[in-house]
Amino acid sequence: MVVQADDAVFRPVRAGNPFEETVERLLQAIKLGVVVPGDRLPPERELATRLNVSRVTLREAIHALTEAGYVESRRGRYGGTFVNENLPKPRRTPAKRLARDLAGGLDDALTLRFVLETGAAEAAASRTLTPAERDHLERCLAETSAARLADYRRLDSRLHLAIAEVTGSPSLTSAMADVRMRLNELLDAIPLLERNIQHSNEQHRAVVDAILADDPDAARRTMQEHLAGTEALLRAFLE
Fold it and tell me: Which of 32, 48, 119, 214 has its CA 20 to 30 A from that of 221?
């Protein structure tokens, strides 16, 4: 059974900052492609229960995201809160400035990503996946490979999250969602390069093929190669 990414993202917020963390969870769902443009968020009552916040707090968070241009509320029989078709463009922080502000954060984020993502690929390949899990990986891979440049970052994140999902570990999927959000802040500071995207798609195919072939060694190795390419680009632009 697939560990659904929305279960990992829409998990209970911690006490102390319920409004801020609710906004964070909703943005995470949108930016990682768990809820795609045009889709409706879960019903208010259900979402408030899953996040363990009051409906007042949830409404305030949704209002904030409406003001920021991420969602819109529709009334009527088929109403609800929907992700906008045209999302705000990420603000690109100059690469050198971001590197300076991060200090040791770059090494930390890359190390955490390496451990989680190589481990996830190996763990996924070590399981006997169900037909639904295999289809889930293939679908996310196809969507990433066919993505427009403007959508690539979101669908790339969705594919990596799908690999975590099919490990069957909700905790790993939640950790992956968190690290992808940190990483995307870094990636938004550098340009998307067509040749790199082509190469990434080839590596994605190799990782998924290894997982579907039940080959944990190859899955881990191909994921390591893929992450090394991303790290090289980040360091080139940020340092």
Answer: 32
